[in-house]
Specification:
heterodimer; A: 214 residues; mainly beta; seven-stranded mixed sheet; five-stranded antiparallel sheet; globular; B: mainly beta; six-stranded antiparallel sheet
Amino acid sequence: MTKGQERKKHPKKALKKTGRVLKPELSYKVEVTDKDGRVIQREEGPSRSYVRQWNEIFQLQAGAVASGGVVKDTSGATQTNAYRTSVCFKCDAGIGYTLNGLRVGKSSTPVSISDYALGSPLAEGTGTDQVEHQLTYFTGPSVVGSTLSFTMQRAFVNHSGAPISGIQEIGVYIFFTAAMMGRVALGFRDALGSPFSIPDGGSITVTYTLKVTA
Amino acid sequence: MRNEGLWYSVTVRDRHGKVISRERRRSRSMLGNWYRILYGMMSFLSCSLVGTNGIDWGASWNQDNWKFQASANEDYIGIVVGTGTTAVTIDDYKLATQIMHGTGSGQLRYLICTPGTPSVAGSNCDFLTSRVFLNNSGGSITMRESGIYCRCKGPTYYSYACIVRDVFDTPQAVPDGGSITIDYTLRVTA
């Protein structure tokens, strides 16, 4: 029987909604505080943001790929010899470190499945439109009722001497390995609902929650 | 908006290759262990994780984590099937009643399990993994659950973790000489 004949005989059925469904979810929260620590702007919501590199790097691990994996890095270069390693997905960036970890930027371009970097990420520093990147850190997975979740968070401090306005995107840069070198890929990205502005001396904090609910 | 999801399909064929039953559905099954391993990989930290042997060897970062590519005959890794009907819970660490590899009564032959290459179509990126199980047991076998076992490294020991489990809407009977194919598709959507 051909695939076409099979399809005719066994047409696609609508997905049944029976029993409980474990729901994987990604959500974010963004908060801006002034130099006194008061929250002056806030947004939270569901993320719509995994991009193709997420599955491509997952496939390196699941398929035990030893060579030849294809992943585009944050420079836009397509790495054609990616493979599984212990650093795939690593994003526990240290202070001042911008290669991986959570990032913020100024592009308002909607998210596309083929995004490979933030549109206009802010650089590290105290110059104009620069922020000081703090640790990307995690809270351990915990089960509450029928939900397991963990969070990742990073604060970005503005010591540029002036407000930084127009922050409209957030995302995470994750490591992978290709051609014997550590590479970085975009894992997920979100365009914010409204532009954020950080006053001088203030900060912006991004928190992502990854959870699955029974 | 949900932007990550898992789907499965089950296809049963008789000894002549004719499709006799099929079920497609969104999986209700990414378990807590999936996210525990993800946490270990992203954070470079360890956390508690109960392996398929019931022992908590933990999860941490390692190159073998999430590996579910499996060779033929390997019933401890890759897509697995069983006869259990217990409802799925967040902390399931194995199938309720796994069918083991073999040709004896109530056993199936496990073929290779090969994760495919992700493909992009529209705003989706899909990643398909399939496995075929042959029934050469001499009798019919009715399957009621499936899942994925992957390799996982704790701080000290390797283990295998159940990261996906589904209970079928409809029990799937595989006749002697027939086969069952399980496809899991991990989809991310922008």
